[in-house]
């Protein structure tokens, strides 16, 4: 009887739970669904840098050419730095791209969610070819757009356009933080891009925060009180 109870709680053979460990693979299907509904062109948008203690949050919007989609597009976190750089060049050469950022100051005066969505909105609105529809990564579509959109959970692993945007945003932000490391060498920004590593925290402890630090984030928020 106990064994029957245990079996009754197991997932049926066709349960989605059985496929949770299978990695997602981005495709162009969401873009084509929008196209069949009369929306074209379709842009993908994503942001990078919500979690760091320092530096901006960077957003990108990308409209891919269906005939020239770079091979190997994927969630930027699943790619090596070298591969991201290669795809960054390919995306800029074959697609319509727009990039925007929100500074640490803007993050502190609003909040990270609002600053991220505002950067995404400005990236979408900055496209040289206006989008008819937007696919965004995550749970939110920015307000203030001239077109409808859809938020896609794990979108950078489901949509080629969002994956391309994630790569552009990631490479752009990493390059910005590498340059920041030259201006503020005490923190090692080139090594950790502003995330709260032991090296970064040690630099803050020894030298205090700089103008790139997000003073609304812990543990920096304690120092601001």
UniProtKB/TrEMBL annotation:
Specify the enzyme's EC class, one word. Answer: hydrolase
Q: Where does a divalent metal cation bind?
A: 46-47, 137
Record-level GO BP terms:
DNA replication, removal of RNA primer; mismatch repair
Please give the chief subcellular localization of this protein. cytoplasm
> Which UniProt keywords are listed?
Cytoplasm, Endonuclease, Hydrolase, Manganese, Metal-binding, Nuclease
Q: Which residues form the RNase H type-2 domain?
A: 40-225
Which Pfam families does the entry mention?
RNase_HII
- What Gene Ontology cellular component terms go with this record? cytoplasm; ribonuclease H2 complex
Compartment(s) where it occurs, according to its Swiss-Prot or TrEMBL record: Cytoplasm
InterPro entries per the UniProt record, alphabetical: RNase_HII, RNase_HII/HIII, RNase_HII/HIII_dom, RNaseH-like_sf, RNaseH_sf
State its Enzyme Commission number(s).
3.1.26.4
The family assignment reads: Belongs to the RNase HII family.
What is the role of the protein in this entry? Endonuclease that specifically degrades the RNA of RNA-DNA hybrids.
Q: Which HAMAP family match?
A: RNase_HII_B (MF_00052_B)
What is the official name of this protein in its record?
Ribonuclease HII
- Annotated organism of origin: Rhizobium hainanense
